[in-house]
Amino acid sequence: MEPLELEDQFVTTEAGYQLHYQSAGTGEPLIFLHGGGPGATSFGNFYYNAPAFLEQYQCFFYNMPGYGQSSKLVVEAPMYSFHASMLAEFMDLVGIPRAHLVCQSFGGCAAIKLAIDHPERVNKLVLMGAQPMFGGVIDPLKLMSKHAANIILDYYGGEGPTPEKMRRLLADYEMHDDSKLTDWTVNDRFANSTDPELLEVARTPGFMGQPESLLGDLHRNVVPTLCLWGLHDWFGGPDVPLLFLNQFANAQLFIEGQGAHHWQTELPERFNRVVLSYLSE
Question: What keyword terms does UniProt attach to this protein (predicted)?
């Protein structure tokens, strides 16, 4: 794959937050949303998928507050509600009345909240490893188990972030086949996780926002939704997307047997084929 670079762009919210994004391509607007792990960005999470999507869509790689070069802040509101409101304001600022949303994990939770509250803003919704509740139906979400509850604090604690800690975090928590973890991904995530303003904010317990469950509102999502899951996703079992399938008004489910939390990075061609086919239906 040829190296891909996109220009950094910024808009400022009414509250004064700077929102960072990158965009390219032509066609229907499509917004990528990243996960919540240290150093995550939308461009980084979907770097190996971007070329295929840019051929068909006007793509926006949007970074939520706290990520990329967006403003770093302590979120003092319910986390998904806050980021859903920021996403809606971002769409207003760049002139997007309605878009496809392709989302990783934490970003998918914010997108579900937007779809519930403002379905007119979302064309189709694609969720990858999103878990907007405190526990699964069959198994508790593994993210909440005591040995994983401090993933972010452990990364930023002790001697602080290092490339070695980032590589271990990605291999242990996000990949199924460690050989698919590239130096580009490790270096990109590490660089974005060491922003001085972020390091300062990360010292505050609960800086990501108040925990929020969307479990009671899942039935209100009427947006056509594709739920994607890696069978080896360490953060939770397939009972989570099965719940989505049961609760959402119009949902499909695809489970990848050879992937984990970031199988779009491990198996980009398969991910591209599945998602692009769904969006074109």
Answer: Hydrolase
